[in-house]
Amino acid sequence: MATTTKSLSARIVAGFGAVALATLAAFGAVLPASAAANIDPAAPAAITIHKHEQTGAAGAPGTGASTDPVAGDPISGVDYSIRRVTSLDVAQNSTWTTLRTLKAPAVIAAPATYPLGATAGVNAWTVTTGADGSVRQVVPQGVYLVEELDAPAAAGIVIKSQPFLVVVPQPVEATGAWNYDVHVFPKSTVSDVTNRAEAFEQEGLGSNVTWTLDIGVPVATAGTTVDSFVITETLDDRLAHTIGDTGAVRITVGSTTLVRGTDFSVTLTGQALRIEFTAAGRAVLAANPDQRVAVAIDTTVQSFGAGTIGNSATITINGASITSNTASVYFGGIELQKNDDNGAPLQGAIFEVVDASGEVVAIGGRTEFTSDVNGVVAIAGLRTDANGAQTYLIREKSAPAGYVLGATTEWTLAIPVGVNAAVEAVVVNDQVPAYALPITGGAGQAAFMIGGAGLLLGALGFMLVRRRKAAEQG
């Protein structure tokens, strides 16, 4: 009778192969019809991380195959730590029994029970995802704790992927084989924010400027929730916001309009405007994955200083913050010189500014600008662009007393950014013509003398006639 003898290692391998399949069965996996093949302890092993954005609902658990479907854009530049759980040996049946219920948080919470590798390149690695969001690390067979570390700010990650365990090799359900090249697809919650100032309009100080934030809705990853969503905009000192105006902050999520006081609150401390979503507002976010949050904030321009007024916003989600770009509006001014036709300055000429629709532009409530004792007309506080190329129509409304408007009373002038000391135009008024008085000894005097003599002769004739009539009656 022939006798077959198995080595101890072969019996162990066969045993933990069976336990691994039992572990899969415990998680509800469908077991293959064939028995599991033995693990090859000499087979090279690797872990490949594919980093993507979370989009929509969480997908099905991964199988470890490179062909697992994945949605969401890849994220490059994300650092991960891979550390071996040195107390768990995949060559032991007890390890597979432990893995039936073991999760990453329990490993992290019990370092004495589950010590982690600390020797770089041997049982601990730090890896960074490449342009396609993936990175591959060759490792010995074993159980590994994988944790997301840091990511570039441009990635916009606000909720990291949760720590997770990777077992190498991984049982393959369909065939009963072993996968030594395990692929994992951790996702992170990302957001982004763009800040814009409203499009240019012809307007002056005291006018409204609306700042618009365009924010990506954060989609929570498996096992996480969006517990806080806060928008902070620190307003420039030259801007004012009316906190009591409930319509001065407007928010939509996709096509849904949020209600102030119900879905979000607004507070203003100094120049810091804080918008915080309530639980109801966050529920709207959760119901609208892959949508955009639009936030409109109204402000009033009170002064312009050097001319450039910039604002940025910070979005804080679950304590992680991302900062927007800086958006700016620009204001400036011009000066005119009012002279007479001899070049002497004239005080008292009145000018106004007119927009493209023919409406007079108010600057800080003023609509008229008068030349001073030096003939200078300062018109400061008109909105312009970064290049100082926006133009306005400047109109002379009235000349100083004793002078008349010139042939040209309107000028189209560009408004440079900031305080401007240069003179954009010299405006000349002519003095009114002198009144034509009669000249002494001239024809004018003779005319008066002739007129006076005529009056005297008329009066003398009248007297003579009256005397004659009186003599005849006497």
UniProtKB/TrEMBL annotation:
GO annotation terms (biological process): carbohydrate metabolic process
Keywords carried by this UniProt record: Cell wall, Membrane, Peptidoglycan-anchor, Secreted, Signal, Transmembrane, Transmembrane helix
Residue ranges of domain SpaA-like prealbumin fold in the record: 333-416
Protein origin, superkingdom: Bacteria
Domain Gram-positive cocci surface proteins LPxTG, chain residue ranges per copy: 437-469
Signal peptide: 1-35
Bilayer-crossing regions: 446-465
Record carries keyword Signal: yes
Domain Gram-positive pilin subunit D1 N-terminal: 46-188
Protein name as annotated: LPXTG-motif cell wall anchor domain-containing protein/fimbrial isopeptide formation D2 domain-containing protein
